[in-house]
Input
Amino acid sequence: MRLRCVVLDDFQGAATGSADWSVLGDRVEVVPLREHLADEDALAEALAEADIVVTLRERVAFPGSLIARLPRLRLLVASGMRNSVIDYAAAEAHGVTVCGTASSSTPPVELTWALLLGLARGIVQENNALRGGGPWQSTVGADLHGRRLGLLGLGKIGARVAAVGLAFGMRVSAWSRHLTGERAAEVGVELAFSKEELLAESDFVSVHLALGDRTRGLVGAAELALMKPTAYLVNTSRAAIVDQEALLAALHEGRIAGAGVDVFDIEPLPAGHPMRTAPRLLATPHLGYVSHANYATYYGQAVEDIRAWLDGSPIRRLP
Output
């Protein structure tokens, strides 16, 4: 009997074309789902006949309550090697193997700069005006050369964002709770004395921290109030690191020049969500990891994970 493999959140219909699923032969039937299922009841119904599930990033949670409702589930493959919304203990208790895939830091670095440059040069406003018969030149761009780029986090992604900033001739500083002067010097940036100093002195602030108890709500109303009214905030990391209500208030009140956001408290965003209409906001629908190369890695290694599991030797097991 063929096993049923359900691929979640295949919004672009790219899953089957990003990897060679034929290597699984006639052992597995692949069923991509293009619509997002946020409700546990809907997920339980859609996955009731699934033996294998491939889930994209951390968009769909797999708590113990859901896993218990999926008696046929035996393999869960998550893109990336870290996933905070899977109950691993429940998976083990129900005999579900969990595997991951590699994930490149290149696409989120590139999107960070797409958002930052789009904000700095008013790309969306100018494009809309040009195509809609509006004014010829209506914005004055913010310079990058000589300006300060402040990075909250200097891991793999933050360090690569820093390198681009340095190439633009920016002064780059970074802060995180455990960041050392040695690490900052290794990357070629300044170590900010404190989070408050970084926010107050930067012309552009970009978030590159992992979400955890210490980073949840790290940038709230008090922190946003420290930023210059001419400064921009970019977040391609996790929405919960920046207080969403505080950010919306700062944008509506013009207390910062603008924000570039790729991550949200609810994904996909509901039609009436205030982030869809906020002023001074350049927003993208969580595209940080979405690229041809990254999808080839995600789905290609998902196929490898499934094949190895079928052969009795699971690879890239999580956690």
